[in-house]
Design goal:
Elements lengths: L2 E2 L3 H9 L3 E6 L31 H5 L15 H23 L3 E6 L9 H13 L3 E8 L6 H10 L4 E9 L3 H6 L6 H13 L3 E8 L6 H14 L3 E6 L2 E2 L3 H7 L8 H14 L5 E4 L9 E3 L6 H13 L3 E2 L1
Parallel strand pairs: 1-11, 2-3, 3-4, 4-5, 5-6, 6-7, 7-9
Antiparallel strand pairs: 8-10
Helix pairs in contact: 3-4, 8-10, 10-11
């Protein structure tokens, strides 16, 4: 009898008794401190910045406008709130219709969603929590881009709502973080994961396998550290190369070789075996099936990836 991997969907269903779906939201005006030059320029080497642009008319009106932690005013807050409303309405209705979703978490997804003045963040978070059948928030961000004021506010919200914060851990090796132009060190991620947990938030950690120069042992040590820091949920990603990125230039020059599928499967299964049973899994792989993908080609077919992952998991008595 195969044991079912504890997924985020399981966690939410157990807690709320109904199907809960994340509604992914992209708010224009948000960016990252390693894109706008605060800590670095160009973003992470694997990040294709244009891919974060959303597709509503309201978004296009704000092109070229970017917030940061020191922004003194936000003349476009009303338009951002309108974007939030439009996207939530469209996506939540589709999820209810097609998947039977009954409740929702508003997922601030693209770019760094705490990297703005507190007043802007509070307005967006409060608006999201006012929507019907919304039980909480999930906020994607960087550990160097959240203030104590924002954390304290989220801590207050967490007393009544399901509040998640998602940090890109990627690697515990600072030499790797420098190679990918991350803009902060591993100690910074550890500090803010621990602070977020103490504040009563749920934490999801993102791990990337196949980063430049990393061995399988290094990848597993990153997983182990993330679990020890107390993350509640995890997203596993293979590093793939898309066009218009610094990583694409390295790949084209022969300076970067993407992780092969078998190595990814090996490290993924071992990482999941290290994982505490109460840490849920939100994502088990990633990829893209369009002409922007340069390599590896096995990241193109998500369904085949899942089949291959389950084949490997079956060998250790698990299924996803």
């Amino acid at each position: 009898m195969l044991q079912q991997v504890y997924t985020y969907g399981n966690y939410l269903k157990n807690k709320f008794g109904v199907k809960v779906y994340k509604v992914g939201i992209n708010i224009s005006g948000f960016t990252c401190p390693n894109i706008d030059g605060t800590v670095a320029k160009g973003g992470c080497t694997f990040c294709e910045n244009d891919s974060f642009s959303a597709s509503t008319d309201a978004v296009q009106e704000l092109k070229g406008f970017h917030l940061n932690l020191n922004s003194k005013e936000n003349p476009f807050l009303d338009k951002q709130l309108q974007q939030l409303q439009l996207q939530f309405d469209a996506i939540s209705k589709r999820q209810a219709r097609e998947y039977g979703a009954k409740k929702f978490l508003v997922y601030f997804q693209s770019f760094t969603n705490t990297y703005a003045p507190f007043e802007t963040l509070k307005a967006l978070y409060d608006k999201a929590l006012s929507f019907p059948n919304v039980v909480g928030l999930s906020i994607g961000t960087r550990s160097d881009s959240i203030t104590n004021e924002t954390l304290a506010y989220l801590s207050e919200l967490a007393k009544d709502k399901e509040i998640w914060i998602e940090f890109g851990i990627q690697s515990i090796y600072d030499e790797t973080l420098k190679k990918i132009n991350r803009g902060h060190d591993s100690a910074n991620v550890k500090e803010w994961i621990i602070k977020s947990k103490k504040a009563g938030l749920h934490v999801c950690g993102h791990l990337i396998f196949g980063l430049p120069g990393e061995t399988q042992k290094m990848m597993l040590q990153t997983s182990q550290a993330a679990y020890e820091w107390g993350i509640d949920s995890v997203k596993y990603h293979p590093l793939y190369v898309v066009k218009k990125t610094a990583l694409a230039n390295e790949y084209n020059r022969g300076e970067f070789t993407p992780i092969n599928e078998q190595k990814y499967l090996d490290v993924l299964v071992q990482s999941m075996l290290l994982k505490p049973k109460d840490v849920s899994v939100q994502r088990i792989t990633a990829g893209i099936d369009d002409d922007s993908l340069l390599a590896p080609q096995w990241c193109r077919d998500k369904n085949q990836q899942i089949k291959n992952i389950n084949k490997e998991l079956k060998k250790v008595g698990l299924k996803y």
